[in-house]
Model the fold of this input.
Amino acid sequence: MRKKGKMQKRDYCTLLIIFGVLLVGTTLFIKNTYRCYEQKQIAKGEKVAKIAATSFMPDLSWSENIIKEIERTTISANGQVNDFQGQARQLANNYLAGEYLIPVKGQRQDQAQSGKIAFSTKVNPRLATYAQKQKATVFQGEVKAGGKSYLLAYQPVFRQGKYWGLAGVAVETKAFFYAAQQNLQQVGYNYQILKSKTPTSKQFQLLMQSQEKVTKGVSYSFQPDAKCSRWKIVVSPAGGWTYRQKALQASTFAAILMAAIFLICVLLVRWFAHIRQIKEEATIDSLTGIYNRLGFEKKLRKFIESKPNSPFTVAMIDIDDFKLFNDLYGHQVGDQVLKQVAKSLSQVARKKGIVGRTGGDEFRVAFLDLTAEESEQFINRITQADYYLTYYLKQIRYSLSIGYADSPRQGTGMRQLLNQADEALYDVKLSGKGQAQRYSGQGQKHLRAQLGFTLHDIASNIPVALMIYSQEDGRILFVNQGTLQLLGYDNLWDFYDEVNTQAVHVVAPRDLQRVTDWLKKFKDNQQESDQLKYRVINRGGGEIKVLANFHLVENPHYGPIIYQTLMTI
Done:
């Protein structure tokens, strides 16, 4: 019998499955949470970079417009330069660092807002050639001059269909990107602003960056048109990316939640195991581990309801003279017998039937889907088996009696068949025990009252001391309460400890040889009955004169045995 509330293998399997599901679910949740926070922050970074880029896009167009204005006002239709310095000074502002002209023929023109910086000399020849061929505005940077950093913007000038040269402006890098820088600082992002070295180059040149480094930045790049340079802004949060920390917090919460859910599941599984155990205890015999009366009938009733037309056979089984040796040898031995019988019946029935103990030494077996004839092979195995226990180096043998009835020939109701099997069992008891009999309806009801008197009742209440022992070796097989009382023993255990299971050990020493010789003569003469007077010793060592009556019988289990009564004289 399992301990109360103990979980079974299926319970552990259930918990293992639950743990696996929770583990997979938590792992997926953590991964999705990490990915969600990561994508969300990266998307925000890309949006910030895009907004920053849009803040200086107008300045790109403005620079182109200034160049066109310089071209229009200072270069005539025939290519003559008119009042460049004056026109340049009129366009001067805090944003514009200088203007310049680079004609193919003629002198270069430079106008710087502060100092004498010849921006025209800083123009990259390769970019100038690219601007001429592509007829596009080109931005060049960064250019170092006068301790500051500048961006040069220039575009080709054509007059009368011929390439005249370049017109351009210079802007201070900080001023050009001031709006973008302010936007990025306000939203708390570190940044890098880069430009491709040439419109066709895949390499980028760093123009400006924040004081703190960009860590694992995200970028946004754009190209005003196909002929212009590519611009890129790379950003990262000033405090670093926090999606890992947020994902870790969510993961910790998910792990705690998973542990809590699993703990609740463990408690629920244990609770259900406890409830199941309570139900099992109500239907399982605690000593033998098989069904009790309630469990047996519940199981059989369920079979009848599920298969109303299927045959089955019910057998009532009783341990012959169980009460006698249960009291003689003790309940511990009796319990071992009950367990042994339950095990034997379970092995015989196996998957073919239901086995139950209905009380005391009575058992029931229902052979499912089998007629009485089909069940007889199993019933015969039960009755023909050799049942015994070893007790104090001797074998205690016992037998089983069986009465059985089958459905549907002898009835269809469970209660009806149980009663019929019970009647058949009574008939077996009256006719010799250790046998099996099918219900016939011809039971000897007038003789059943005799079964109310068990061998135990007779042995306990007979008014003389009775002792039974083997003629061959003198081994005591049985003593009744009268013998124990005569010799002063409280129980059978003390008696066997003193006499060591030998009948001659109760004989007084001065009569021992005489009794031994007499028993040998009694055996040699093959007498059936006789008497002898001698002395026995009680537990305290005192001698008691008795008249012993001897009767020799043949027992199928033990061979020749002597029934001996003792009466004091």
In short: The first strand starts at residue 96 and ends at 103. The chain has three domains: 1-283, 293-453, 462-568. Residues 1-283 form a domain with the Beta-Lactamase fold (CATH 3.30.450.20). The chain has a mean pLDDT of 88.
